[in-house]
Amino acid sequence: MSIGYPCITVGVNDTKQKTCRKASATEEHLSTLIEHNLNALKNIVQFNGEHKIKLFRISSDIIPFASDKEVNTLDWSTQFSEQFEEIGKLIKQYGMRVSMHPGQYTVLNSPDEGVVERAIADLEYHTLFLDSLGTDASSKLILHVGGVYGDKETAMNRFVEVYQTLDERIKNRLVVENDDRSYTIKEVIWISEQTGAPAVYDNLHNAINPSDPEKDDAYWIKKAKTTWNKKDGRQKTHYSQQQINNRTGSHSKTIHIDEFVAYYDQVKDLDIDIMLEVKDKNLSAVKCVLATADNGNIKDLEQEWSRYKYVVLERSQEIYQSIRELLKDKSSYPVIPFYRLIEAAIDLEPIPKSAVNAASHVWGYVKKQATDNEKDKFKRLSSAVESEEEPLKKLKSFLKQMIKKYDQQYVSDSLYFEF
Question: Other CB atoms closer than 10 Å to residue 246's CB: what's the count?
């Protein structure tokens, strides 16, 4: 089983991707953006490999305007072939499985021929991208069925008809996912049986738009498994949690460990890959990878603690001390209690006095190098935050500048500036 996340990272340096408006999409500018984005992808793959994350969804926006031949006229797969080859080798080295997920406007079952033509062009782009990396057919393109258009049966049949016209290279990669409004997992499995495109089961979508509320996740995963062939690789699933007090279907800010472990216990023997759809991306992926490790090492938790500790300290001195006590026994691996405490802290808002205490710890990395003016500014901002005359973000913004100026990698690699 592999566990992964989609598209972007949180708190990982040099992984941000860039795009542009059509008006500035010159060949030169697009070339610069693509080179930057491929370098960012390489850094993401490197991070994932180092953290035992073997599943990753690549952003569809990595090649700006790739499916619009009037805007992006570059032969980018050839122009950047060396970068593609380098990234592909890295993916293979780490035993990583990558995928892509075309967006909501890539609709194969639309009654509008123009929409369908653009959807196929978009699938051709995604397929070429994965081909350029040298990945096999287990690297998938995930697609929703599309709209209902007043007649679901006709719309489903239209998807099947359009699918049959697709290039075999696209067919080898395409998988179909249930959604939270229109198409249930049962309907998606029917489409899979007609087309040969495997079905991806999404637990939250099924909870909102169920085929049969009496059937659990394991049941539908087993049903969907029948649509996967050997060439498709391990069966892929999507997992997410509902964000409390938000719109139905909104993904949670983080994967709550107790809820995930309960799900994992249901499915751990089903030989699946799990894509986490969650707002904190790699943070939850690392959490779930460590929580399900067969031979966990406390050093991994200590590394995690080095990234979270100032986030926790600015919220709760009590939780901060509890985690320090928890990690004292070097022969243990208290991964679940550790993340329970991290989650409890993150759910809290920073307390002014605690926040200034945490900021002082961070300031300690640069205070010897800082100028007199910088020292005065830190003192002024700290006092203003503690008395609630200034927002904490102003103090942290200043600290971020100082950490960058004086090249303090330890703090830069932490999550202190992400929360």
Answer: 11
Rounded-to-integer distance, Cα 107 and Cα 36, Å: 29
Q: Give the closest residue to 280 by CA, choosing from 304, 241, 311, 252.
A: 252
Helix (H) or strand (E) holding 361: helix 352-363
Show Cβ contacts of residue 213 under 8 Å, excluding neighbours closer than 6 positions.
none
SS in 3 state form for 397-415? HHHHHHHHHCCCHHHHCCC
What distance in Å separates the CA atoms of residue 317 and residue 275, rounded to the nearest whole number?
Answer: 34
Residue 414 to residues 196, 276, 300, 368, 411, Cα–Cα distance (Å): 45, 22, 14, 20, 5
pTM: 0.94
The token duo for 82 is: 């060396």
Query: What CA–CA distances, in Å, run from 360 to 13, 99, 252, 342?
Result: 23, 42, 31, 21
Residue 265's closest CA among 295, 288, 283?
A: 288
Using CA atoms, how far apart are residues 139 and 130, in angstroms rounded to an integer?
Answer: 7
Helix axes 113-132, 81-93, angle to 10 degrees: 70
Sign of the Cα pseudo-torsion (134, 171, 237, 245, in order): positive
212-228 tens-digit pLDDT: 999 999 999 999 999 99
Specify whether the CB–CB gap between 303 and 317 falls below 8 A. no
Nearest CA to 197 out of 227, 231, 223 is that of: 227
Identify each DSSP E strand in 119-173 by its residue range.
Answer: 141-144
User: Each residue of 133-146: pLDDT tens digit?
Assistant: 999 999 999 999 99
Closest CA to 416 of 394, 400, 398: 400
Length of the chain: 419
Instruction: Report d(CA 124, CA 83) in Å as an integer.
Output: 20
Dihedral over alpha carbons 241, 253, 105, 16 (to 10 degrees): -140
39-59 pLDDT, tens digit each: 999 999 999 999 999 999 999
C-alpha distance from residue 348 to each of 106, 240, 306 (Å): 39, 22, 19
Helix (H) or strand (E) holding 235: strand 235-239
